[in-house]
Structure prediction request, 173 residues.
Amino acid sequence: MKDIVAIYPGSFDPVTNGHLDLIHRGAKLFDRLIVAIARNLDKGEPLFDLDERKEMLQAMTADLDNVSVEVFDGLLVTYCVQKNANAVLRGIRAVSDYEFELQMALMNRKMEPRVETVFMMPAEKYSYLSSRIVREIARLGGPLNGLVPEMVEQRVRRKVAQKQSTLVGTHPK
Ligand code: PNS
Prediction:
């Protein structure tokens, strides 16, 4: 039997219940699942640094024996080859995700035909959920229950408060 190693890449800023739903599904399907946090993203200043994101993901997946969490640099397909991974796992929530995911999957296949992209759907209740929405709700003081684990919520609240107090400190009156 083939040992299937899959990489679940993303920015995870922060990890949401939707990500965790997909990690649980992937852990059942694959022999090994590596959750891989991308270092270089053209997304501007992140809320959490890489170590913080890794720490939260590790805490939330500690009960899954075949799941590990790493940080990667550069091209995803190069990292897959380094790790002897045969698959990339990505979540598709709604039709709006499809175009970008298709482009990425086909480009990755063109660069590295040995790696297959596997798409899975999270539970419907997470189909509107994203890290970006979580950050925005947190900045505006809205409720995060059900969107992220409690420990992540506390860290998001603390981080947003920290960033907002730093901003207040730097603005002239
Ligand atoms: O959580 P995200 O932001 O949707 O994740 C996007 C990610 C990290 C999977 C994607 O940007 C990526 O694979 N980055 C690594 C660099 C790379 O390989 N780029 C070419 C993709 S075709």
